[in-house]
Amino acid sequence: MTQIDRRAMIAASGAALLLPSMLQAQGLTGNRPTPFSWDRLVAQAQQLTRTPFRETPAHPGAAKVDYIAQHEARFRDDRTLWGDLPGDTGIRFFPLSQYSTQPVSIATVENGRATPLRYDADMFDAPAGNAVKALGPDAGFAGFRIMNAARDGDWLSFLGASYFRAPSPQKQFGLSARAIAINTSLGKEEFPRFTHFWLERTGESSVTIYALLDGASITGAYRFVSRLGADGVTQDVTAALFPRRPIEELGLMAMTSMFWYDQANRGKGTDWRPEIHDSDILSIASANGTAHARPIINPPTPLVSAFAETDPKGFGLVQRDRDFDHYQDDGVYYDRRPTLWASPSTPLGAGEVRLYSFPTDSEYTDNVVAYWTPAASATPGRRIDVGYRVDWSAARAPASQALGNEVAIVQNVWRGRGDEEGSDRLVVDFAGVADGAKPDIWTDISAGTMIKTAGYPVLGQPGLYRMVLDLKREGAGLADIRAQLRLGDRAISEYVHYPVGS
Predict the structure, then answer these.
(1) DSSP string covering 41-99, please?
(2) Residues of 119-129 as b/e, b for ≥16 C-beta within 10 angstroms?
(3) Which letter does DSSP use for residue 192 in this model?
């Protein structure tokens, strides 16, 4: 995955420009309302595949809008779209900047008619000489954010490529979702981007967002039915995708996060805080009822973990550790970061949940991405329909919730040296083991030998069960460890996957 600078992504900005001539001819531009529907948008995306891909040019003045200039330019309260209506649906816009240089088109939808929005530099208050004010009257937007009723924070934003994100119920942002991932783990990643948005207010705390995706390898139509509730933001996503050319690795329901270090690999960190990460576990709910947990690591080299599945119930990146003492961060509050869970609304068929990560030495680089790769090939002439829900929550065990079966979950992972020379020790704490239970420990190792296993309840910690594994790896690479607590033939814990290595 190409490195994503978190500070740049957070700082980025944008909005509307004149549309390509093909879109003008098809009635998607102009000052007057034009007919709009989901079927029209799907047809538009399909039509795009019949034309050569053209990258939207960067605005020439965007490079002058640096981090300071962008944040000095404050969006005016009285220019908030739908700001005079009750509820959590006021829309504000991001200006272009050196982090988001390509403008997007934005329109509103009402009663089946779309009305384009025109960029206006007077939407922003800024000091004299600020580069945002110098962008010009037709600069366009970089993206948008949906504000809460108090207008002092947002609950959903779309900014950059096909990225979007929402906060946890504790109003803390963290990881991002992506509409699509192309060849992420192959070293030649593409970033198709949303070039046009249509916004429809559907309730006091509900907005439906339509988007046109365009890229060198694929086009697509997206619909996001987005709601703010007491338990966080949920989005029902529908997509129709049309490959322009064969795609080696198509990533659907994608999500991007950051993992620098935790208590298992404290040596990776140079910061004073004990842990720094947005997510610490990849969670998968299999169709057979198994809840998988793959703790995330900061690998020494780029790493792909693939989990073959047929019709999984869902997967997601979880921030399981929610103890403030474990982070000691009183500024950006890693303990409050959202969990992002994706659950298909129609069966996915055969494919893989993939986790790709690469090494980082900073909290500002998103170095983790998870996505679904279907087994069926993505080739020109084939329409790919996708439907799923994403939940931005504080859930610690979304796989168990999706499966409806409560099992013990991974609470903590620790690493160290084993008793024998040259051996590694992996310690996994499970929360939720019944008092008095004496589970069997099932293990497997991909490259090496399991020397010994042990397990016991942790004194003074009700429900906490500690599994200790000593192993010897073969060679210098990573050894994949799989482990689970069982009572006879019945699993009573998550199925844990952990790569052990230098």
Answers:
(1) HHHHHHHHTTS---PPPPPTTGGG--HHHHHHSEEPGGG-BTTTSSSS-EEEEEEP-SS
(2) bebebbebeee
(3) -
How far apart CA 48 and CA 215 sit, in angstroms, is 10
pLDDT attached to residue 502: 65
More confident residue, 172 or 24: 172
Percent of the chain with pLDDT over 90: 89
Neighbours of 326 (CB within 10 A): 16
In the chain, the percentage of residues whose pLDDT exceeds 70 is: 94
Q: How far apart are CA 496 and CA 439, in angstroms?
A: 15
Q: Report the relative pairing of strands 281-285 and 314-318 from DSSP bridges.
A: antiparallel
The model scores a pTM over 0.85: yes
User: Quick check: 338 pLDDT over 70?
Assistant: yes
CA dihedral 128, 133, 136, 140 (to 10 degrees): 180
Pairing of strands 339-344, 490-491: unpaired
What pLDDT score was predicted for residue 391?
98
Quote the CA–CA distance of 271 and 264 in Å, as a whole number. Answer: 15
Q: Which one, of 223, 185, 232, lies nearest residue 205 by Cα? A: 232
pLDDT at residue 216 in the model: 97
- Smallest CA-to-CA distance from 321 within 234, 391, 394 is with 394
3-state secondary structure of 281: strand
Please give the distance of CA 485 from its chain centroid, rounded to a whole number: 30
Helix/strand/coil (H/E/C) assignment for every residue in 84-136: CCCCCCEEEEEECCCCCCCCEEEEEEECCEEEECCCCHHHEECCCCCCCCCCC
The token duo for 323 is 């103890």
Bridge-based pairing of strands 464-473 and 490-491 is unpaired
Q: What is the distance in angstroms between the CA of the first residue and the CA of the last residue of the chain?
A: 21
Q: What is the DSSP string of 383-417?
A: -EEEEEEEEEE--S-HHHHHHT---BEEEEEEEEE
3-state secondary structure 200-249: EEEECCEEEEEEEEECCCEEEEEEEEEEEECCEEEEEEEEEEEECCCECC
CA-to-CA dists, residue 458 to 408, 428, 484, 491, angstroms: 14, 12, 17, 20
